[in-house]
Amino acid sequence: MSDSKHLRWGILGAATIARKNWQAIRLSGNGTITAVASRDARRAQAFIDACQAHVPFPAVPAAVGGYEKLLARPDVDAVYIPLPTGLRREWVIKAAEAGKHVVCEKPCAPSLADLQAMTDACARNRVQFMDGVMFMHNGRMPKIREELDGGSVGTLRRLTAQFSFNAPAEFFADNIRSHSGLEPHGCLGDLGWYCTRIILFAMKWRMPDRVVGRLLATRSRPDSPAPVPTQFSAEFFWKDGPSAAYYVSFETENQQWAHLAGDKGYLRVDDFVL
Q1: Which of 106, 143, 239, 264 is catalytic?
Q2: Pick from 110, 269, 251: which is nearest to 187 by CA?
Q3: Per residue in 232-251, pLDDT tens?
Q4: Would you say the pTM of this structure is higher than 0.85?
Q5: Is residue 153 classed as helix, strand or coil in its secondary structure?
Q6: Are 265 and 251 in contact, with CB atoms under 8 Å apart?
Q7: Within 10 Å of residue 107's Cβ, how many Cβ atoms?
Q8: Reading across the β-sheet that carries 7-12, which strands appear in turn?
Q9: How far is CA 234 from CA 163, 184, 211, 245, 270, in A?
Q10: Is 106 tagged catalytic?
Q11: DSSP string spanning 156-184?
């Protein structure tokens, strides 16, 4: 790092979601973006121009053609990786081997084996690995923890959540989340990641004894090798604890709530993913 108080970031890919993290880094007070990479430097420059027009950095980040060129830069301490899930293992490992800390967009990997390889590479190279679930860093989370532990809810009995949005027709024409080679788990990976997280948070990361998943609907864009989940439900069971369930969908009107119920009360958050 250039100094102990300022983190220099690179972004691998010009995905739309990366615009939110551009703004977050600008507002952090202790970070700056020094470079953005795309396979085409012109696309990286277009991304930089659009972001600078909205949330400018004093020093304009460099546009880089190729991800490896960005990882080789000495003025990058950490990288944000919003590449499609199917590509993340390769580039997280390469980033770790280049000595860069990593924030990886979610879902981090299509399989446990891939995720283990990614986190092992980061541990081996002594760099930080974080996933991109932003709501975990919201100031509400310690307050939710305080309520759950403070007795007002009592012993947890039932945990439920829903995260859904009704995707327009163009979503199933060109969005990466409807392509099985890029985002193989569809709504389960994109939205279920959040619901799983809030449930495990409520349970203090205690893994369930049994999990049941139901694939309710599939769909894909025309060039996808296979369909992806567009509606999915899951249930979690603990032998001596509560049960939990969630529903996620690309085909149901927008909802993003969590309901944590105990034997004395309940806690409901209508927009927990924000």
Answers
A1: 106
A2: 251
A3: 999 999 999 999 999 999 99
A4: yes
A5: coil
A6: no
A7: 23
A8: 62-65, 31-38, 7-12, 78-81, 101-104, 129-131
A9: 12, 17, 7, 5, 19
A10: yes
A11: EEEEEEEEEEE--TTHHHH-GGG-TTTST
